[in-house]
Amino acid sequence: MDAWVVARPGPVATRPLERTRLPDPEPGPGELLVRVEACAVCRTDLHLAEGDLPPRRPRTVPGHEVVGWVEALGPGTQGPPPGSRVGVAWLRSTCGACRYCLRGAENLCPTSTYTGWDADGGYARRLTAPAAYVYPLPEDEPAEELAPLLCAGIIGYRALLRADLPPGGRLGIYGFGASAHLTAQVAIAEGATVHVMTRSAAARELARRLGAASVGGSADPPPEPLDAAILFAPVGDLVPVALEALDRGGTLAVAGIHLTDIPVLNYQRHLFQERTLRSVTANTRADGREFLRLAAEHRPRVTTTPYPFEEADRALSDLAADRVEGAAVLLMS
Ligand SMILES: [Zn+2]
Ligand SMILES: [Zn+2]
């Protein structure tokens, strides 16, 4: 089958992705064989391609926002039958037995594995996935609009939970790509006032269209103090900026898996008055199910930039250069 692999992790200008042919994967016990219909391009794919996240195995197929159709079940697998539409997301497996898994925090499982990092992902015609970790998807929605929900949407929702936004609260969003534009819409639908700070003029325009109360440059102060903020831009320099924009008792959640260094913080300016700084690590399957339920209820407008499967490397360089509006999505022909 046709596939893309991370052949030489490095700057995107050095073309770390390589298009290749791989044998069709075979589903093992507990696994599904899934034919890929669409795969959204996540910033994490860029971090993997560029080597910010070190490879866990050589020549892995990236991609963890996969909309596809079950073609076969591995030996002894209980799961959706062939012909079912499923979503394959970032969290691929957890142990189910450690202290974190047992207390409902499987996102912190030390032996968790990830689609497109520990195992081949969706920049390919087919992939395998454990049946217990896929999500059922509606069969009548466009794949292009479902794919970004599977990481951009789910992780953004986890970040929103971690930001502890009070009902009807004031939420600041720093950076406005695929994840932020979905999170903002869910927050607004649930009653929040959302202020968006981002460097891209096109993204500011999109934020305004989607109902943001104000938009500004990436380090601009919002027009009112924030009860909560989410940092989507992978830029550590924005941590003190966002902390300073918080009201007393406010929380900043850092949504990315990778962040440049955070500058020295000043206790009085950035943390005193019980402001809280938190990270966000992956998601639980419960987060995924809850977000997909909310998305079905609120129907966020999913802004996408489609690319043919054959142009995955161009999608990645466009993402690196901020040339993508909403989510980049690879479509299988
Ligand atoms: Zn575990
Ligand atoms: Zn992702």
Considering DSSP H and I runs of 4 or more, what fraction of the residues is helical?
Answer: 25-40%
Low-confidence stretches: none
The total of helices stands at 10
The distinct ligands, each listed once, are: zinc ion
Estimate the strand proportion.
25-35%
Tell me about the largest β-sheet. Answer: 7 strands, mixed
Radius of gyration: 19 Å
Q: What would the average pLDDT be, to the nearest integer?
A: 96
Q: How many runs of DSSP E, i.e. beta strands?
A: 17
Q: Element order, helices and strands?
A: EEEHEEEHEEEHHEHEHEEHEHEHEHE
**What is the end-to-end distance?**
13 Å
> Which shape, going by the Cα principal axes?
globular
Give the structural class: alpha/beta
In short:
By secondary structure, this protein is α/β, with parallel strands linked by helices. β11 (193-197), α6 (201-209) and β12 form a beta-alpha-beta unit. It contains ten helices and 17 strands.
